Input
Amino acid sequence: MATSTTESYGEVIPSRIPPVVEPAAAEPTVPVFTTSPQSLTHSLRSSRGPATAASDQDSGSNSPQRTLDDVREQVAQSIAVRTITKAEMVDSSKVGVVLTIAPSSDPLFLRRVASKIKHGLLTSSYLFAISTTCPPGTSAPLLVCGSLEEFVARAALLIGSKFLGRLETLSGHQMQPDGGRWVGMVQDLGATPFDEIALWDVVRKAARNPMDPLVPPPGSMGIDQMLANARTRLERIKPETAYSELRDSASPWPTVLVDIRPEAQRQVEGGINGALIVERNVLEWRFDPRCAHRLPVADRFDLRVIVFCSEGYTSSLAAVALHDLGLLNATDIIGGYKAWKQAGLPSEVEIAAVGIPIEDYWSVSRAGDSRRAPSSMLYN
Output
């Protein structure tokens, strides 16, 4: 039997559910439906074959005709099948997210989909988030359904945090006794791809088994592995190489030296005059060329940023964060400031590789900072 397709509110969704009436023709043509309810009904009638359609005309109402409610029922079944098919396993539970297309916000339709999912997973553990997209400036229903009320309760808490200020709960549609359902309205849901990513994070976390406090969660990594992974992306340099690069006026790109140590550490260990002081907690905002709060020098993606900390550990993670922003020339100094001192390098550097006098890049927003010497440039 050829599979049928049903267009769900403007989206054609392949259906694995057989048509209600068997086609009379041996090789029926797969119909293509329009978004009009009248066209949907007409096309579904036509899909049963010419002989059946003629019989309908001859015999009046002898054969039952598909209604719009029948269409919605089949669409709900199709979405449920697609949801279950595309689900992923978290521990021993199926989880998934579906954003479908609908011309209006209809929580009752989503509840119908949830019922189909429950019927298809009677003996399984599951958690799904189902919603419709909505026009800008409007709200769309978001339904969470699960096999356990505990799953749904966790998901509802996470949704409240992730969609803070955008969530409107619907009276009478929160926790239900039949396995657990929660419904809310979310403003501008689906306007960005980050909404779907956030919902996936919700269902994955909410469906996890209780954690053993002594066992690392799946997918986590220790700091040693994080550091090793970060350093595979860098071409780390020795202090002598960093000093040479900073003094190279023929460099093809601007080069800056950045001290990310906190103030207390700088006071104890000392510093390098000529370095930009950008503490770790604001580094990305100061060096993202797209950001309104960037430093004037961070106006290009080929900027060579040489980062150092005390011993060269935090600086590796910081340099990789700059890579993630697109500053692929960023790197860090092996051994950090302590290695710089041990190499006997000067405590003051006149950076020639910037291309223009570095004081032109020195700007501070607070009057208190203006008392600092230009050779110690602090950017909070």
